[in-house]
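Researcher: Let's do a round of design. I'm pasting the structure tokens now; please hold your answer until I've finished.
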């Protein structure tokens, strides 16, 4: 009997696939698969009962199965970052190499909310140890005007700044390698949102290939 589940950090939702393996059911039989929350407990146990009756297999101990599934659900909800089988990360919206060739920039989100468009990027390491290597070490006025922007046609959208003139993006990006973790850094930036009829943008970050086209999500 094997359970595969994954928790979504910060959310009381899990993904669960429950398999009863060889010896009781010929081959592999999927009992449950989908996204569940705590309120679904009664429904899940009812499904298990129904499945057990339909199989009419005397060797199938439904009480033990129900207890096992309940334990898996509780584990995923109490420890949402723990997963016995994690879902594959979503494909990036756009990718490009950093100038040193040691990491790949992957755009994971471009969300337009009101008059602000926020873009998030992660960096996947392509070298063994990138700890303490930097992508850039500051955003001065020249860099703000020429090295960080969205492009729509021939129009630039520069990074927004706060009331003190500080750009709404990390002032520096330093990579850090950790064993078993493919990503070595991240970046985000907030820009003026282009008009609603604009559905794609291109992103420029200092020392990274131009990224795009990037599909915009409206929220």
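Researcher: That's everything. Go ahead.
Model: Designed sequence:
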């Amino acid at each position: 009997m094997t359970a595969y589940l994954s928790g979504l950090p910060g959310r009381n939702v899990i993904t669960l696939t429950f398999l009863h393996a060889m010896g009781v059911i010929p081959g592999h039989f999927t009992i449950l698969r989908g996204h569940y929350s705590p309120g679904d407990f009664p429904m899940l146990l009812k499904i298990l009962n129904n499945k057990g009756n339909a199989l009419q297999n005397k060797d199938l101990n439904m009480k033990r199965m129900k207890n096992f599934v309940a334990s898996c659900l509780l584990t995923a909800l109490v420890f949402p970052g723990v997963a016995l089988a994690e879902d594959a990360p979503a494909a990036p919206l756009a990718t490009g190499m950093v100038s040193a060739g040691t990491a790949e920039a992957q755009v994971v989100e471009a969300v337009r909310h009101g008059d602000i468009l926020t873009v998030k990027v992660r960096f996947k390491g392509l070298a063994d140890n990138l700890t303490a290597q930097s992508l850039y070490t500051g955003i001065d006025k020249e860099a703000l005007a020429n090295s960080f922007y969205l492009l729509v046609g021939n129009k630039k959208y520069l990074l927004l700044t706060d009331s003190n003139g500080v750009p709404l993006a990390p002032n520096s990006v330093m990579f850090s390698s950790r064993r078993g973790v493919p990503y070595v850094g991240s970046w985000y930036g907030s820009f003026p949102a282009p008009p609603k009829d604009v559905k794609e943008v291109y992103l420029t970050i200092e020392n990274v290939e131009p990224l795009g086209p990037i599909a915009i999500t409206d929220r």
